[in-house]
Amino acid sequence: MSAVNLISAESIKLFSTRSPWWCNLLAMVLPVGFATAAVLSWPTDVPISVTEVQMGYQFGMMLVLVMAALAVTTEYRFGTMRTTFQAVPGRSSALLAKTALVAGVAGLVGLVAALGSLGVASVLHPVSDLGLGTADELRAVLGVAPVFVFSAVIAVAVGLLVRQSAGALALLLVWPMLVEPLVSVIPTVGEHIQQWMPFVAADHFLRGERSMIADPVLSPAMALAYFAAVSVGLLAVALVVARRRDA
Amino acid sequence: MIEARGLTRRYGNKVAVDDLSFSVRPGRVTGFLGPNGAGKSTTMRMILGLDRPTSGTVRVNGQAYHELDQPLRRIGALLDAKWVHPNRSARAHLRWLARTNRLPDRRVDEVLEAVGLAAVANRPAGGFSLGMSQRLGIATALLGDPEILMFDEPVNGLDPEGIRWIRGFMRDLAAQGRTVFVSSHLLSEMAQTAEDLVVIGRGKLISQCTTAEFIDNASESLVRVRTPQAEELRAALARADAEVRVEVETGALLVSGVTTQLVGEVAAAGGVVLHELAVERASLEQAFMRLTDDAVEYQTTALPAPELVTAGR
Ligand SMILES: Nc1ncnc2c1ncn2[C@@H]1O[C@H](COP(=O)(O)OP(=O)(O)OP(=O)(O)O)[C@@H](O)[C@H]1O
Ligand SMILES: [Mg+2]
Questions:
Q1: Strand pairing of B243-246 and B253-256?
Q2: What CATH number is given for B2-209 in this structure?
Q3: For FRET with A124, which of A134, B11, B47, B115 sits at 20 to 30 Å CA-CA?
Q4: Does domain B220-280 have CATH number 3.90.1010.10?
């Protein structure tokens, strides 16, 4: 069974219901909206940085997490996962095809969101020299795409492990929004552990020294590699579990 | 060809399928019969590799299900007509499924046409009636044009028109030389469609035989004979160890414990003329209930009959 066919099957699934369209649309619109609001509330004579303009990526990321998790959990909810496994009894190849598709879409959405934010900000705030000139600026803008890609991989894995929408979404939204930021509260070790939290690492990759980590061990590039490794590791575990479990 | 050998499945300490061995012969309709909770659906999920057997094996055309390349072209199944995303159109549902096994999109329109859903193909499947959902499920099973088809209680909940359509459809599939394996908890239903039966109760095999044999064995059958030479036939049958009674009103003989063949042969050997030779049997459901009696999973304790109030008389 060729990968192309399986990815094509997954893309028919993903785009033949409405909610992925809404999630993806919002995942692009919200960051751009945030950039617009940030620029409009910024003093017109003080330059705004690219990193500042891209802050809204987090809203897009939440929606990408929702879109990717639902792509899995609705299949369990409506029993189409069984039909999928019946058609592709190896299971992993179908699940990898789904991951590839969802992650690819997430990457495109991230790219559009980031470039859109940059474009809107440049138009609305001509004083700032917003561009992709420096390494930091490149990472802050183009880096949104890989961050969305691996976020989607994490969400697919969590969806496979949890199998139901409410649980998976609660976990995926509470974890990066509440758990990771609060880790630093743990006395003495908190600050050190926090930089090993996957979404904190992703944020460090995008925002460099402006991220919440005070004393980073990993370089921004290594932080992305770490985020990617976590997502792939989680997916590997989820694939093994999905193979073994009753469908 | 489907072959189960020692198939066993436990859920916790509940044994849903218990050392089950049977085979489904090619080119016939085989009924899979058992009361509620007998393990029919569990067995079918194991055939499709969806649930893992605790022990034992089941093979489709000699291969384990997960070894099949493009399995939809080998075996099509309808286990649950509700396994469809409610907001996805019937056509989109079939299109993604076709893509996984490299089936052409043309095939999607063919099966939609075959089950009579072409006109509603672009409507969301969530709005379908049970009968339409069942048709979509059958379209799903037919998609890969497989030689083996498996249906789990396909007529459940359908109106008489829907039932007739499904029965006809299964007969057509068998007439095309396909293997059909279909479950039910009603013997009368199976008697109309299946040539062979696999009967289970509480996960265990009760019987595998042809439907005719099963019905013969299951129901205590009486052979009813009318003949002008009643005395001669009665004597001949008694010599063949058959138990014979005389129906008082008509004078017909009622013979138990024998087949019509035997009675016919005894009569011919003795030169006896027959005017009627027929089987009379208890109802199929009674017979089935008796066979699976101790194999029924959820038995209801009969409510005590209300006592007749005789006081005051
Ligand atoms: N996933 C499961 N977890 C626990 N028990 C299960 C599971 N699936 C089935 N069972 C149990 O196994 C037994 C057999 O169930 P199964 O659904 O296979 O029976 P069935 O013959 O299809 O019944 P019905 O005619 O009601 O559809 C039942 O007692 C059921 O409760
Ligand atoms: Mg069942």
A1: antiparallel
A2: 3.40.50.300
A3: A134
A4: no
Average pLDDT over residues A236-242: 97
Q: Where in chain B is the domain with CATH 3.30.70.100?
A: 220-280
Q: Does A16 touch chain B (CB under 8 A)?
A: yes
Residue type, B260: T
Residue numbers of the domain that contains A157: 3-244
Beta strands B221-226 and B253-256 are antiparallel
Distance of residue B122 Cα from the nearest chain A Cα, in angstroms: 11
What is the complex's ipTM, to 2 decimals?
Answer: 0.91
Residue B173 to residue B146: CA distance in whole angstroms: 10
Specify the residue with its C-alpha closest to ligand 1, atom 11.
B16
Domain count for chain A, please give it: 1
Report pTM. Answer: 0.85
Give ranges for CATH 3.40.50.300 in chain B.
2-209
Instruction: Calculate helix-pair angle for A57-78, A144-162, nearest 10 degrees.
Output: 30
Quickly list DSSP for B164-193. Answer: HHHHHHHHHHHHTT-EEEEEES-HHHHHHH
Residue located nearest, by CA, to atom 2 of ligand 1: B11
- Distance separating alpha carbons of residues B87 and B246, to the nearest angstrom: 66
* Residue whose tokens read 């009579």: B116
> Which of A67-71, B198-202, B211-215, B222-226 tops mean pLDDT?
A67-71
